[in-house]
């Protein structure tokens, strides 16, 4: 049986500090931590602390506009904190064809090397 999209994920355990993560930023709404399987010298995952049905971007509703903006703005702050002054990449994977593996919306911040376009 497939897992319902509103089920808890590993990210809930990171939010609750039940499992350790290398947290680089945290406020009331957003937590950002280093990816366990980094795809670049800097690879940080930013997530909302409250999922509110947002298992992925494809599930976004009007009420999520504020947190979606907050995630992107926080990504910019963390990029600055990480010294990514020459550029960085933001990625949101959605659904099976987008290679999403954790169904709690998240923004990837990648940097510290030259990125390529188009991505694979
Ligand atoms: P997705 O593939 O869904 O876009 O991204 C999920 C990301 O979360 C992956 O890059 C994966 O490496 C990362 N990830 C999965 N589980 C953990 C974990 O327990 N700790 C950390 N730090 N990252 C994780």
From TrEMBL:
Residues 10-120 form the HIT domain. One of its GO terms (molecular function) is adenylylsulfatase activity. A motif (Histidine triad motif) lies at residues 104-108. The active site is at residue 106. This is HIT domain-containing protein. It comes from Chenopodium quinoa (Quinoa). The chain holds residues 48 to 167 of 167 of the full protein.
């Amino acid at each position: 049986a497939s897992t319902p999209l509103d089920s808890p994920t590993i990210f809930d355990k990171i939010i609750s500090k039940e499992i350790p993560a290398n947290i680089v930023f945290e406020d009331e709404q957003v937590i950002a931590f280093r990816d366990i399987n980094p795809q670049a010298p800097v690879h940080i995952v930013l997530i909302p602390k409250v999922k509110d049905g947002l298992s992925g971007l494809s599930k976004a509703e009007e009420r999520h506009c504020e947190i979606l903006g907050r995630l992107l703005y926080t990504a910019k702050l963390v990029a600055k904190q990480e010294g990514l002054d020459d550029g960085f990449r933001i990625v949101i994977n959605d659904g099976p064809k987008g290679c999403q593996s954790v169904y709690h919306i998240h923004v990837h911040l990648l940097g510290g090397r030259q990125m390529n376009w188009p991505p694979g």
